[in-house]
Design a protein that fits this description.
The chain is built from 15 helices and five strands. The protein has helices spanning 8-20, 37-49, 61-68, 96-106, 128-139, 159-162, 175-186, 190-199, 204-212, 214-231, 235-251, 253-274, 287-296, 299-317, 322-332; strands at residues 26-30, 74-77, 116-121, 145-151, 166-169. Strands 2-3-4-1-5 form a five-stranded parallel beta sheet, with helices on both faces. α5 (128-139) links the parallel β3 and β4 (145-151). α2 packs antiparallel against α3 (61-68) and α12 (253-274) runs antiparallel to α14 (299-317).
């Protein structure tokens, strides 16, 4: 059974290629984090090696071993851990050594299955040497070997690699599809499923992770509380918060980026409230606070705030001084008086 949710057209295409024996030797699965790229890659590896007539069955010993990451013919290549001098996850790479190790292994016959599958997670973060080395293999791929590249940003991949892959775009699913899946497949209560379906931004993997790990939603609540408090804080408190955020940025760029993305969704919700579109907001568990903020801000101020957050994200991506960039952002967030309890 194909387990990836909300990608029916892609699954149908892969099924057709498998049934007629014309599956490409290299695939590129593009899409945002947690949209289902890895699940689809694992399902494809299972379908290629499954012992059942209905592939992938998910139940045979081969499918189970692939799902657990313990099948010798399925190789995962992932971003190397950052060293002590660089703890920024955005700078992790797939090294040429990793690709060369893979190239040695694929020259051997599959141990157990009919196909060897190489899954490269973070293919858009290969070093130049790794990308060029992989290209040589894609130009003359060994028989019974299928490559699956997982990436977020197509622009970071070599055009020559792109030309040798069959590309599939995994798009975020709608709120309705996500809600239905969470209720029917994961037994989530409708009210909680509605919240998760909205805040996951169509990335069902994020919602599933939040179900399994309560700290994810707890962290979101803390970030929203900070954002709400920040709206009524004075300049001194705002600059102190900017300093804390800059320190955090030095430890994890990704964590701060996720915070700022949350800020964009918050102010987007305020804009929707301002324009009478409450049914479309994401942060439905804070509807009353959003309404208060919308009442105190003009449409132009809301738009300028969203733009300021987005520009700050861009500046941080371009290695601007984090503390300075975040302090400027603090000055661009409008001051909002507290009117009622946020409970």
């Amino acid at each position: 059974m194909w387990q990836v949710i909300g990608q029916d057209k892609i699954i149908d295409s892969l099924k057709h290629s498998l049934s007629d024996g014309h599956l490409s030797h290299a695939h590129l699965f593009l899409g945002p984090k947690n949209v289902g790229k890895m699940t689809l890659a694992i399902n494809l590896a299972q379908a290629l090696n499954c012992e059942s007539d209905s592939k992938p069955c998910g139940q045979c010993h081969i499918c189970r071993r692939i799902a657990s990451g313990n099948h010798p013919d399925i190789q995962f290549i992932q971003l190397a851990e950052a060293d002590d001098t660089d703890k920024s996850s955005s700078r992790k790479t797939i090294s040429v050594e990793q690709i060369r190790d893979m190239q040695y292994s694929i020259n051997l016959k599959p141990y157990e299955g009919s196909h060897r599958v190489i899954i490269i997670d973070g293919a858009d973060h290969m070093s130049d040497g790794a990308a060029n080395s992989l290209l040589k293999t894609l130009e003359e791929p060994p028989s019974n070997t299928v490559f699956v590249l997982l990436a977020i940003d197509e622009a970071l991949l070599l055009q020559t690699i792109l030309s040798r892959c069959r590309k599939f775009d995994l798009l975020p699913m709608t709120v309705d599809i996500a809600r239905q899946a969470l209720i029917e497949q994961y037994g989530i209560q409708p009210e909680r499923a509605e919240l998760l379906a909205r805040i996951c931004h169509g990335r069902i993997g994020w919602a599933i992770s939040a179900i399994e790990d309560e700290s994810i939603l707890e962290e979101r609540s803390r970030n929203l509380s900070n954002l709400i408090d920040l709206a009524s804080a004075d300049t001194t408190d705002r600059f102190e918060f900017a300093s804390e955020l800059a320190t955090q940025f030095g430890k994890s760029r990704l964590a701060v980026r996720e915070d700022l993305i949350l800020w964009v969704t918050w102010w987007r919700d305020i804009m929707l409230m301002k324009n009478g579109c409450a049914d479309s907001i994401i942060n439905i568990d804070h509807e009353n606070v959003l309404r208060e903020h919308a009442e105190q801000c003009s449409t132009s101020v809301i738009g300028e705030t969203i733009k300021a957050i987005q520009e700050t994200m861009q500046q941080l991506d371009q290695n601007a001084n984090p503390r300075l960039a975040l302090e400027v952002l603090m000055l661009n967030i409008p001051i909002i008086e507290r009117e009622r309890s946020h409970a």
